[in-house]
Amino acid sequence: MEQVDLINGRTLEGLVLEETQTMVKMRLVSRKIGRPTLTSTEEFRRDEVRFIRHLPVGEREELSRKLKELDQQRDLFLASLRMLDAPSPQLTNRGIEGIRPTPVAWEDDPNQTAWAFESHYFRLTTNLREPLAVLVTLQLEEVFRAISNLFPPRLPGKPTRIRIWSDQLGYLRAVGRGQASLDHPAVFDSLGNRILGGTELARLEGESIELRRHHAKQLGILNLREIEIQKAMGGKIPTDFAEMAVRARRELRDADQKNDHAIRQSRNQLLQILNHESIHAYLGNWVYDQQKQPLPRWLNEGLAQVYETGLIEAGELRADWPDSTRLAGVRQLIREGKFPALRHILADSPDHFLVRVEGGGDKPNRESSREAYLASWILTYHLTFGKKLLPGKKVDQYLESLAKNEGRKAAFDAFESWTGMDIDTFEKTMLDFVGRLRPDGSLALAK
Predict the structure, then answer these.
(1) What is the pTM (predicted TM-score) of this model?
(2) What is the mean pLDDT of residues 190-210?
(3) Which of 3, 46, 251, 276 has a CA 20 to 30 Å removed from the CA of 432?
């Protein structure tokens, strides 16, 4: 970024928009770990400025392009969110340029309207209501573009078919055909190159509407009762009734806010799940040949987890800080002596990541699945941001070695060649890394 040093000691970064003999106008840019990029525009008197560091023309144009793209991306998402919460169903996606899903018949019920959208990387069909379908489309466009900038495509992939149900029942019915139901809110079927997902958002939003109507009715009764008492008491309201009315209004407001928060959480969860499965789909379809050079399951799941919670801004995927929930989970497993050994992670069966609902005896499988996911996440995070070994050419050599040689020993040898460390030493450095890792991705000093 360009830099402006002020006489008072402040150093500002961003893009200089205008300079005159009396004034400097700058768009300030702040990027903090784990937080969205913030921008603002400020003007300074020329006599307040000590020094200006300009970027070369090409870099300046690139910075200007990124900021413009960031603005456009945020405008699109804000317009989509306004549609989601709009009181009138007439406010549709017509105001969102370039994102216009096509109405189609829903495959499960030809009499039901669904929405379809075609992109370079995916083909979406969903029976979510239109504003939510628009939001999902925007998110999918952004995550596929961002992950493709991080891992450029190397294969002539095909668009992934994505189907999202507005209820869990339809989704579970689809993934349960011919197999035990998977206890996952979404799955990527690599053989069919498709993502299937379900959400309870339709039910939650319907219940929210009914609840608000009920609360509005209660509030109307309370207001009417208050007016009646006020008239009967000569314009005065008894203290006990006034206090009760304040409590009732607060409880109604708090209930509505709690319900809105639950819906926002459910929306965010859906988008995060789609991030995860989209990363699987992109890596397996456009980067790594699943027949000749497949990703081992631990690395595939690790990459999807590392980047699913990242910030997507103007085609960049920022994920260089640890997910706090996963980090706490890893540390808990280590304290309890349940964290899998590195050799077990590297040679783990893909089935250990799956939780199948087959009666009531799935508890051990559920726990082993959680351990497998957490272990693959921290190992991949350490390789990416601790050791700086992902992405890169060495990972290709690791995958080539795995493809040529089978067996546990071959897998261990390939990993040692990739990292330049024997497995026991690497494991010690990873556990030390976990102990010193801070929320912002930095490391505490070794004791």
Answers:
(1) 0.86
(2) 88
(3) 276
Burial class (CB in 10 A: 0-12, 13-18, 19+), 179: exposed
Q: Which residue has the tokens 């309370």?
A: 222
Phi–psi pair at 11, nearest 5 degrees = -120, 120
Dihedral sign computed on CA atoms, order 246, 247, 252, 255: positive
What is the mean pLDDT of the segment spanning 67-73?
93
pLDDT tens-digit series, residues 379-429: 999 999 999 999 888 999 999 999 888 888 999 999 999 999 999 999 999
410's tokens: 């071959």
| Mean pLDDT calculated for residue range 230-240 | 86
Percent of the chain with pLDDT over 90: 64
Q: How far apart, in whole angstroms, are the C-alpha atoms of residue 194 and residue 162?
A: 6
Q: Please check whether residue 278 is in contact with residue 122, taking contact to mean a CB–CB distance below 8 angstroms.
A: yes
Task: Express each pLDDT in 309-349 by its tens digit.
Answer: 999 998 999 999 999 999 999 999 999 999 999 999 998 66
Q: Are the C-beta atoms of residues 65 and 73 closer than 8 Å to each other? A: no
Tokens at 35, concatenated = 């937080």
Rounded CA-CA distance 439/185 in Å is: 27
Residue-averaged pLDDT of the chain? 89
